[in-house]
User: Fold these one by one.
Assistant:
Number 1:
Amino acid sequence: ETGVTQTPRHLVMGMTNKKSLKCEQHLGHNAMYWYKQSAKKPLELMFVYSLEERVENNSVPSRFSPECPNSSHLFLHLHTLQPEDSALYLCASSQEEDTQYFGPGTRLTVL
Amino acid sequence: AQKVTQAQTEISVVEKEDVTLDCVYETRDTTYYLFWYKQPPSGELVFLIRRNSFDEQNEISGRYSWNFQKSTSSFNFTITASQVVDSAVYFCALSDPTSGTYKYIFGTGTRLKVLA
């Protein structure tokens, strides 16, 4: 299934680095999501975009900055992260509030 | 408040055994969706099923079956004749498609280990 792709699949970065995660959906959906999955914690919804406008921002620290240039692409810009930000970052897409389809995730390690 | 409880943290079975994963939900909404997702070691959440709150029919797909009971607020998932490839973390989720929030409420997941 290649409906939702994410790059890179793995990322190691220092606390002073700036990096970006990319998500692309090929399903013709109009909503996209970023989730964070840490060990032994429930999935956390970070951001939701509908028709390229942010509709949900769950008190995420400003060191995470999303960008949705069009309905097929979603970015998560990272800067000055902390070790506790190490996690699996999952992107998803949906048509309206219908079923969400997930990408393979980016496993991020912050040193 | 909405809530999804997956009380089974981890289950181990021997291949070919049947296994049921429990999901109990709480919501005051009359319209809602229930989902099951599978997360294999690779990390991707794979969509398995969506059930509408107005449709209590049970569903079978190959070795998978789902039992939705509104009376007990449960949406349980049974794998028949389990296989090693079924080893994964399984998540149950709840959403209100009319809320405008796009939020899913996920359970904490059940890790299934199928031993050869």
Number 2:
Amino acid sequence: NAGVTQTPKFQVLKTGQSMTLQCAQDMNHNSMYWYRQDPGMGLRLIYYSASEGTTDKGEVPNGYNVSRLNKREFSLRLESAAPSQTSVYFCASEGAKNIQYFGAGTRLSVL
Amino acid sequence: GDSVTQMEGPVTLSEEAFLTINCTYTATGYPSLFWYVQYPGEGLQLLLKATKADDKGSNKGFEATYRKETTSFHLEKGSVQVSDSAVYFCALSEASGTYKYIFGTGTRLKVLA
């Protein structure tokens, strides 16, 4: 049972480079989320998607774009990476009773 | 706006010690409350939850009671093990699919043998 799968697990970028973080869930959930985790700040919501075809900004959306490709997949794109985007990124989907299921994370360093 | 406040860590305990991690919240409605746990190198996973006042969530020896009068949801365990070493997050959710899911900053627990 895969749950939520994120790729890649690690990435190093140079300032100005672009990349896409991939996320897929196999639990048939409608809602999906992208968070970033920084020391001392917990998890902050970047974007979320309540259902296929819809996306909305969260608390810290600047510098990111998202695509809800289908019900399973929700990708996060950094168009021009900045050192401030060095973080650990988590994708999650939400199932019954408001329970969120998380991927293992992507550790991103921007030099 | 809604918020969750957790006690700062790290918390270091000896094996078999009693654990309390404090969590208080502010919310406009009647949220569900959660504790998630994050083991090293992994994503968060649900530990326990409570959906209304006076509910007690429990799992793996951990317990937390939804206290509306004190807006608290403190995590407790009577006897911790080395394997409980992790980061613990308190969270609230107003309703499904609304993105109103607020996490605390996390409390790191280290249990020594």
